[in-house]
Design brief:
single chain, alpha/beta, 2 domains, eight-stranded parallel beta sheet, four-stranded mixed beta sheet, binds guanine, binds fe (iii) ion
Length: about 450
């Protein structure tokens, strides 16, 4: 039995990133956690250590759990497969046939169970999930998140446009799609003991949906106040599709349908214009930046620095399985790397002066901020930071794990966070907590002081 930290305190070294571009080290601190799993106080051990406090093993460091802002839960079985096709071919040839299999609840239960356990073991404490068009399997994903303790935001995918969605895998009508979405929202909100799973309105992307469905979901978003997610301006094809259908960008069209709210997350958004960014920012909506997936499907690099400087909320997403890695460490790395290619440019035939876009790269500290606090802000949830009033969602990193790839040669973990972020894999995650409950890893039972 794993020890819950609810109503307890944890002593150790903590590191988080409240400010973009900065890392804050809380060495030898005590975090007290309430019975509700939220942080009550954060302070130096020198100010007092309550009785019954648990002590982190020597050499470990605690980070906020990762917030993965874009996961296609049903696509986990094809992680790393078939990425040589363009997006619109990949969807029809591989992805829709796989997603259609989730009509089978036994298949869904096995695949979703494996995914949620793996993400928790990998340090993803919150995930914003696209499920499938199926009502039952979507509800099942929410139940699995709750049973395994993950903070899951789960959406039934809407795709009712017969021009772009195959007959074997689509909503029958716009009305049915909206009614099913409403039913899933009600069901998730009513799950017994639900303190962490939230429903999400999820039009797949504009090409998949009729205007009636988009308008119906926009009205539902205003009515129920829940989160909204969709893909936006992901690739040349997807961006061009909206321009052709509406004579305006998908950002503008989504806004027109009432789908841009403070709780909206737009995946990719690679081709946002300056005006689109203003629209997203003014709505208080956010972007799920999926740097790895973008290398396969987007045809360009998302101008992350520009979005951040404009004040757009941005978090990071793996985009399983458009991105072939479930790891948010990997998402941090590819975010840095893609931004560096944007800055320097990529074509050695082009003179240095005109090859790239100066001033567009970001560093690992910024990527870490986006993967934790940034995701929390985009979702408008108190997660991603060690601060009173925030959920205690965290991971304990063991940099000395023998089978891992981090080698600190005697340096203190808190001084080497960048090295840890570049080198860490699941092997280095000793424990994962969500809302104070340990949901993965080895137990700290013996370290009661
Ligand atoms: N656009 C519409 N559906 C999808 C999807 O499943 N993955 C990605 N990357 N883009 C999409
Ligand atoms: Fe996606």
């Amino acid at each position: 039995m794993k020890v819950s930290l609810r109503g307890r305190a944890l002593l150790g070294d903590f590191v988080h990133a409240p400010v973009r571009g900065e890392i804050e080290v809380l060495a030898d601190h005590v975090i007290r956690i309430g019975d509700d799993g939220m942080i009550v106080s954060v302070g130096p051990a020198a100010d007092g250590v309550p009785e019954g406090t648990l002590e982190l093993p020597q050499g470990q460091v605690v980070l906020p759990g990762f917030v993965d802002l874009h996961v296609h839960a049903p696509q986990y079985p094809q992680l790393g497969l078939a990425l040589d096709e363009p997006l619109e071919v990949w969807l029809g040839k591989y992805t829709f046939p796989l997603e259609a299999r989730y009509a089978d609840l036994d298949f869904a239960r096995a695949a979703y169970g494996t995914l949620v356990s793996d993400l928790l073991a990998g340090g993803t404490t919150t995930a914003l999930y696209f499920a499938t068009v199926h009502r039952e399997a979507t509800q099942l994903l929410a139940e699995i998140c709750l049973a395994k303790g993950q903070r899951g935001l789960v959406g039934k995918v809407v795709m009712d446009n017969p021009d772009t969605s195959p007959g074997y895998y689509r909503d029958e009508t716009a009305e049915a799609a909206v009614a099913d979405t409403r039913a899933v929202i009600d069901r998730i909100r009513a799950l017994p003991g639900n303190d962490r799973v939230l429903p999400v309105i999820t039009p797949r992307f504009i090409p998949s949906c009729t205007d009636d469905a988009l308008a119906g979901l926009g009205a539902l978003a205003q009515e129920c106040g829940c989160h909204v997610q969709t893909h936006c301006s992901e690739s040349d094809w997807a961006h061009g599709y909206a321009l052709e259908r509406y004579g305006q960008t998908d950002t503008a069209a989504l806004d027109g349908f009432g789908l841009l709210t403070r709780k909206t997350v737009l995946a990719h958004s690679v081709f946002l214009t300056d005006a689109d960014m203003d629209t997203v920012r003014d709505a208080g909506a956010g972007v799920a930046h999926c740097a790895l997936s973008n290398m396969y499907f987007a045809n360009a690099v998302f101008p992350l620095r520009r979005a951040l400087e404009k004040g757009v909320h941005v978090g990071l997403g793996t985009d399983i399985s458009g991105g072939p890695s479930a790891s948010m460490f990997e998402a941090c790395r590819t975010t840095v790397q893609a931004s560096r290619l944007l800055e320097t440019g990529t074509d050695s035939d082009v003179p240095r002066e005109t090859r790239g876009h100066p001033g567009t790269s970001i560093d690992m500290k910024t990527a870490f901020h986006l993967a934790t606090a940034g995701g929390g802000e985009a979702l408008e949830l108190p997660i991603g930071l060690f601060r009173a009033g925030f959920h205690f969602d965290a991971i304990a990193i063991d940099p000395s794990a023998e089978l891992g790839a981090i080698r600190l040669f005697g340096a203190q973990a808190v001084e080497r966070i960048e090295q840890i972020l570049y080198g860490a894999s699941r092997t280095n995650i000793a424990a994962t907590w969500v809302g104070g409950d340990q949901v993965s890893g080895t137990t700290l039972n013996s370290l009661l002081i």
